[in-house]
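Handout, section 3.2

Students often ask what a structure token actually looks like in practice. Rather than define it abstractly, here is a full record for PGAP1-like protein. The first block is the sequence as you would receive it.
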Amino acid sequence: MSVEAPFYPIIYVRGFAMTQGEIEATTATPYMGFNLGSTKLRQLWDGRVQRHYFESPLIRLMKEYGYTDAYLDGGMQREKLPPRSIVIHRYYDQADPHFGDGKRPAILDAAIDLRDLIRQIKQAICGDNAAARRNFRVNLVAHSMGGLICRALLQNKDLRDSTEAKQVNKVFTYATPHNGIEMAGFNVPRFLGLWDINNFNRREMKKYLSLDDHRHVGTLDGHFDPDRFFCLVGTNHKDYGVAAGLSSRLAGDMSDGLVNIENAVVAGSPRAFVHRCHGGPFGIVNSEEGYQNLARFLFGDVRITGILQLDSLPLPPSIQKALNEKKDVKASYWFEASVSPRPAGGGGGVFYLTERRKTNYSAIMRKYDEMMKPAQAGLDKPRWPVLFSTCLDTARITRGSTVVFTIELIVSATDYVIDGVLFFDRTIPGENLYRQTICVRATISDEGWRVRCNYIDDEWGEKLGTELSLVDGSCVVPVASSKGLKGSLRLALEPHN
């Protein structure tokens, strides 16, 4: 059988199981969590509260994209596997004495097994068809430690040049500790071999990822295109109940309850932030937001990146006066950005593809000098905030040929420091330098993109808005406030898949 892009077979690689009981609980299930959904409540227009059922990533991929699982008659199908298949990498089976020798597999062992599994899937789909085997590709979807297993396949010096590693098309990770795990501000110790927790120590990660430096291991090191590697980051630590809440308390606010936000990405990769915890009933895998990002990254055809560039970043009059008097003024700014596509009927209603907010401890922070005086900050150029990088799918359009999405953008300041003294009284709670919801309409035609926008906090969203000029695949949305903030939101539209 031939495999047609972008609907390649999918391998799901589950995350870390700490205790022997957790291992045996997960090996006792066929899909290892990829079939788990969730039920949430939402309020309707008439005040009634209604359940919203998210059936699970597995079921949604089956319903919406025609995928099927690889199980047949109580076993895994070994021949004539359909191209649109979902296969579970059951690397923990050997750690269960019912299925294996009871020994936990090392990360590298699980990566070797993943290589062999890809080989088996290729044979089951392509058989001896030389052209089909040559064009074969596979997508990897992983939760937590599963993402490190995928990276070991792609980066370890003994695996990265294998045919199977080269046939990985894309990787999507949920809440993977790409730069290790920290508890109470410290990387988990190297000597902590109990339950293999040292898998998340950077010195150990350096070994199985074949990296030269252990100080930052969140890099693909040139062995896989970061544009084809998506990181979904959780920002809700409160709902993670593992170890009676101890994990959540030690990981801290800026985490999903286990993995710090800044450690859940690889350098240069697209990423999204969703208000979900690491696992459990409110976990990142079994969420509408997670699935929508997964589907758009694997099958979407448009990638949009938003970067905010500022011409003027105002200070309150009293702070500006101090600056004019040559006093040393320090200030930092929060940038909050949330992106939501227009619902396409059915698909779970309104949701955020990415949501970066101060209340979730996931807003982007930049210092004044980093943006407005880069030389003083030791930079060659301004460090503008990348607000989002998300994928959209024109196949989901139900009317016409226009993709519609909104960007909620808020800019605010932290406290101000003048000559080393922190001035609390110069900041008014809730004060913003800029706040607006921008509606973007992007229409594709034979001549290319036509993009319009309007500011729907000030006018009705159903208006078509102002047409934006498109230069080298990017358009500029003017951003300005009455307080003096001026700049532009640059939207880069690129083909995806």
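Discussion prompt for tutorial groups: Residues 107-126 form the longest helix (20 residues). How would you have guessed this from the sequence alone?
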